[in-house]
Amino acid sequence: MRKALLLSASLIALCATPSYAQQASARATNARVKQETLAPQSGSDVFKLGEISVSVVDPTTVVGSRNVVTAEEIATYDDSDTLDSAIALLPGVDISKVGRKNETSASIRGFEMRQITVMIDGVPTTLPYDAYPDLARVLTGDLSEIQVSKGLSSVLNGPNAMGGVINMVTRRPTKKFEGSLSLTAKFGDTGAYNGFRSQLNMGTNQGKWYVQAGASFDDISRWSVSDKYKPVKNSGTMFTQAGNTMTFPLINENGGFRNNSNSKDGKLNFKLGLTPNDTDEYAIAYTYQSGETGLPVYAGEALGLRDSKGKPTDEEKFAFQLTRPFYRDYPYYDKQSIYTLTHTALGDTGYVKSRMFYDTYKNRMDMYQDEDYIYPDMAGGYPSFYDDYTMGASVEAGADLIPMNTTKIAFHYRRDNHKSRAYDADLGYNSPWTENVDDTFSVALEDTFHVTSKLDVIVGASYDWLNVKKAEEFDAADMSISNVHRQDDHTLNPMAALRYRYSDTGTVYAGVAQKSRFATQKARYSTRTGNGTGIPNPYLKAEKAINYEIGFSDTFAKRFSIDAAAFYSSIRDTNIETRVSTADCPNCYKTVNMGRSKIYGFELASRSKIADNFDLGLAYTFMIKDLDSPTAKERNLKPINAPKHKLTAFADWRVTEHFSIIPTVEAYSSRYSTIGGNNMVNGAVQTVGTSIGTGVNQIDGVKIGGFATAGIKLRYAPNKNFEIAAGVANIFDKNYELAEGYPEEGRNYYLTLTTKF
Fold this sequence. Notes:
Elements: H1 2-16, H2 26-35, E1 52-54, E2 66-70, H3 71-77, H4 83-87, E3 93-98, E4 103-108, E5 117-120, E6 123-124, E7 143-150, E8 164-170, E9 178-188, E10 193-205, E11 209-220, E12 237-239, E13 245-247, E14 263-274, E15 281-294, E16 305-307, H5 320-323, E17 327-346, E18 350-368, E19 384-399, E20 405-424, E21 429-430, E22 434-450, E23 455-475, E24 480-483, E25 489-500, E26 507-517, H6 521-525, E27 528-529, E28 532-533, E29 543-556, E30 560-572, E31 575-580, E32 588-593, E33 596-611, E34 614-626, H7 630-634, E35 637-639, E36 645-654, E37 659-668, E38 671-674, E39 684-686, E40 690-693, E41 696-698, E42 701-704, E43 707-719, E44 722-729, E45 737-739, E46 742-743, E47 748-756
Parallel strand pairs: 1-7, 5-8
Antiparallel strand pairs: 2-7, 3-4, 5-6, 7-8, 9-10, 9-47, 10-11, 11-14, 12-13, 14-15, 15-17, 16-41, 17-18, 18-19, 19-20, 20-21, 20-22, 22-23, 23-24, 23-25, 25-26, 26-29, 27-28, 29-30, 30-33, 31-32, 33-34, 34-36, 35-39, 36-37, 37-43, 38-42, 40-41, 43-44, 44-47, 45-46
Helix pairs in contact: 1-3
């Protein structure tokens, strides 16, 4: 439900993109460069809160698909307050669950989360270690818009944006005093209380300065699986690697309330800005986010181990890795961010803007032997701790250096510092802290040549490089910390595109861009993977993708809009986590550069005003992702979380001036998934067994079925300052999974009260 509605907003935004092209001359384009602001507003009313899009670039250089969904549209079309559900309805965007942590991630046109840059106000927020932020933990109550760009994103965005950029833009007040308060209660299918959400925002704009502050809080005590869910029985006795037997529950999930599905998330934010004139802005912002969450246990069939006849086994030596539920808990994950934003106009056509930032991230994960979470499980290296920080800065400048040309340059610097420690069973206490430190740089140049008032040629390139400053590992045998091999890397990323505005409402474009992504610290240095024991690979090379795209956008008779794009990406040096066998580690995993892969498909999106009080939105995405290498084909590796078909639809029926009915539908075809959360990164799974012992084969992945869900929302707004909404999500109580062994929420209800002041 949420996805389809957000998608609708993105369609509106895409149809609005041609408005950037409605210039009578290149001089008009240059004038907008001067007027660019740090946090663009969608109107005089602060509650028309911006957009959700994928590019932080000035619209004059945006080529390719650029989706924008406003915060008002999120509130209208959905009940969600987290980043995953806010972008899930956009064409080409797929929400999935990854790893044994079952974290929520997004892919853009088949590119995984680690291949996408996540930003807030243009500041990168991607986690330093594995680049896998849990999007379900990112609250959106303080945002004015979310921007999502795909494929042909600008080279000015900075490094590691191979698959696109998700940029969250925070609110900026427009009135002397304004605010909003939203309260939501959530209920299960039986009417039982599931949780509560609150959002408060206040701000003041005094002309020369402004202040914005907000707070969001989510408290989910539990949620229920579908009534159609059938518990899966697994063997109760498994063998540990040490040869000792352990007994586990025959049923990992009984249905009803999902085991360990509780979570709490809180967020505080503050922003102070100076606006001495219409073109300049100087702001400082602070965000604090804290949370704790349980981890719903694995509830699948443990299909990873099969005998010589291809049937699942119950009692083989390593079966516990799949059938044993993991009783994990996250007592805290705290993230703090402080950053500055500046924008200064230079003459009539030039500007310079800068960003500086410092982020901290602290995390603890515990593991238990029992479903009551009483007896700690220390043998697996738990508890484990992260203590990370990132810092950096960027500078961008643009001007008309010569007539008919807008030239822009950018420089980016980021330091990623990851510290971790874990319980060591051999020592009997937590190991010492080990540290990894990377410095990443990017220099970019982009030029837009305004051939005519209707035709632009855009060319650019960035040079990115990775400088590894420190990489440590702890050896429990001799109680020492040593440096491991460090290898730097660099890439050159050119791009070129054409954009033609054939009418006041229509635009066609075509382009090609190379994008790259440096390997994560986890892939290079970790000795633990989602599958178990990992072999580090510090020699990993950057992945590189050549993205091709052609598309158009138009609006007809002010009542019908359509957006279409065809895309093709060729990726080389693909990072794949694969099983390896050595004398010291006969069943281990290692991330390697495995040849090429390709992604291709198309997107269609439309929105129609059937009547003055009835809007209809549709979107369809077709996509093929193929691991095109001899090794991948030999091992029958399949890409995960890449459904071939995605269809979303919604309607907004304004029955009266104050009352609306909003139904939604979303449908996805089948996809490959990991088994039990194995292979958490580097998105491929092995679907043919590899021998790990006499007569026993192991696989990593399985195909899970497609699904369709529907929802409906009733909205009553007696005036512009008050609203009450009630809705049903998953109205037909569909039992479905985004990851094998992790059933999603069944039918549920919500009631929301919102006031603006």
